[in-house]
């Protein structure tokens, strides 16, 4: 459903607002967002999971939220709720973060309860990949489509599935782990404990690892220079930046990662026959350096009549994705 | 929704009937089925796609249908419609078979129009994997589950997806082609034109091919004997039968195919987090000979907390699946 249509049908005017809270491993942000997609205010602060208790972090976010509401001057009646996006795994029903790998020490943290109690507003909680999928669907690259796969490629590979016009969660909220499909049965180890996952072949750290491993063959100058001469400091961003300057070694690494990405997307197309696949984070930065080899692999590994109905595109919301993720939970 | 609940909610009593028509590459069948799942009558005949025009075949099925209705003595008012299952690709909306590989010469055959015209009953058409998925969900191994993957492993590998309690078709009716996910990037050629598809590694013909290819190493006696001494006559059934008698060569082939199957199922679990995966045809025949290696591969290639929520089981309907497939389209 389009945002406008939803607002008309539900009698909600665009002056309705949501507090969007994004809890990340490094930083957390609170923003005041209109349901029509305007970000009015935004504040962020370090999450500091190792220095503060989870409850300390939540209290601090509550203080930030209250300040933002007061500063904005909006009437509390026009605030319909709070949308929280955080790293999974989490229990959506109770709004409890279970043990997100990016928040060490956070175990069974009842985010929904705490925020509802302290803010006196209804709270919805969703894992960040799903919430961003909803945001791209309502406000970004996915507008108007019915079947969408959103995949973000950063430190890990997360995904959210909109199927038949509805977020699909799976049986116990684990659907959409496209980053952990097996691409190479005896491939490199993945942080998840398996081998040969897409994430172990095409995520940011996988690209950096490919670059570091190639060091020993001497094909490395520009990437190494960008990393200040220290191979351990190499990140995927250095590889992308070197490739943008035409460095053949960096281009080769992105071609390899992009090919694996394409095989994973081809499998996704064969399984889900989506209308759009929206790719975030690293793909937005690298663009065609990853998309061109990915598209070539899709042509080789997916059926034409499914592939030609599926648009592969970078995410459109950029920095606004985090803020709109919480709002999208209320559409 | 359970069959009983559906019947109560929609005010339909169990004395309501459907004509189920299954159009297969070799044989076609017409049956009279009650919505509660009883098969009252059934007739089948060779499809003979190379000897008759598509229209000739449809006319013959109409004659068979009329005979069955008359013989059954049921009142025409209690017949709510016709459910047709056939090999894809097909256009569900118009009920047109497009160019099914198992029916050479059938191109854009308007099955729905023809049957509606000649039988004066409403007609629903669905591809056979989807229709059988619905049948297993309503009447068989999938009862009560909300997220089901049905996969049939025979000459090809077809699948149907029930997601959030609804058959998921995808953008242009191509969802669920799990047999054509890539398991080995440089694997053996698949009939679909790609390489390394699950279907090229674990279908009936793939198992027979593995057996034939191993002939040259001399490890073949029992399988070859079952095939009458001619390697070209070896089928997957010979391999399964030899394995059931403990033949180590046949056991090894099924272990290999079962492992590939398990990798494909692990990918499916990571992507869709289903509650049940129901496996038809060859898996029903081979049972644990394929399921044991498949389960071992799932343990290695899928996350435990998704895998332990997913029951992997053989299909339950057996020979009744074809008949109930058409009826399930009316639930």
Q: In what range is the share of β-strand residues of chain A?
A: 15-25%
Radius of gyration of chain A: 20 Å
User: What's the CATH class label of the largest domain in chain A?
Assistant: Alpha Beta
CATH-defined architecture of the largest domain in chain A: 2-Layer Sandwich
* Coarse structural class of chain A: alpha/beta
SSE order of chain A: HEEEHEEEHEHEEEHHHHHEHHHEH
Largest sheet of chain A: 5 strands, mixed
Indicate the CATH topology of the largest domain in chain A.
Nucleotidyltransferase, domain 5
User: Can you tell me the overall shape of chain A?
Assistant: globular
Identify low-pLDDT runs of chain A: none
Span from first to last CA of chain A? 9 Å
Q: What share of the residues of chain A lie within helices?
A: 40-55%
Oligomer: homodimer
> Strand order across the biggest sheet of chain A?
3-2-1-4-7
Q: How many discrete structural domains of chain A?
A: 2
Sum this structure up briefly:
The structure is a homodimer of 331-residue chains. Chain A has 331 residues and is α/β, with parallel strands linked by helices. Helices cover 40% and strands 20% of the residues of chain A.
